[in-house]
């Protein structure tokens, strides 16, 4: 069930813009064929097909960047033998932790109006500190253990040690965090667009569609319900899928220990 909940909005977001479906515009909030029209008289189905690229693309891209940057910082901080390197890498990130994420993203969104790259990078930036601290905490035991010392004595490269051994030790915590992190990113991106501070009010983005058409929800509910269902299905399904992966990894680890 969780896979289905994730795949439906994900496939719509990725392949929707390439579906050769003819738009059927009409009067504002008109109920008719398919899912009717929105407040501007645009085909709701057509908006669903093209609106997921920004709604999910910015959130997933931001989390990927956050893990790429924050994960690297966390691994370096956990594996370094010099305390000052750890301090230099982690302490500046502590300054960013108390900042309210939605406020920071809203300010950037207003300054760079309708700029998906700017919103994506900002969402990534506010997630880097927590990701770095998570990866650092999860990797500390493995990075300071005897296995790493043995690999260093065998003159294994830093990349091979960190990716091949230490990196695998953080997969469980990362998998547990990924569902929450993706959900938070979708919430932040959708909130900025819903408040009218991000993308253009006429953009087909799912969150923008919910915000723009909420006044006509009694006249044509599908203009609001359809994009909202896409967002809810993705976040709910991703959380359920992440929980399943975590439980499976724990069960596998327990079986290995019992053997």
Q: How would you portray this structure in words?
A:
- The protein is built from 10 helices and no strands.
- It has helices at residues 2-15, 44-79, 83-96, 101-111, 116-143, 146-153, 158-169, 171-194, 206-213, 222-258.
- The longest helix has 37 residues, at 222-258.
- Residues 252-259 have low confidence and may be disordered.
Key terms:
10 helices; disordered C terminus; elongated; mainly alpha; 259 residues
Short overview:
With 259 residues, the protein is an all-alpha fold.
Strand content: under 5%
| Coarse shape | elongated
Number of H/I helices: 10
Secondary structure tally: strands: 0
The topology string of helices and strands comes to: HHHHHHHHHH
User: What's the rounded overall pLDDT mean?
Assistant: 82
Fraction of residues in H or I helices: over 70%
- Describe the biggest sheet? none
Radius of gyration: 22 Å
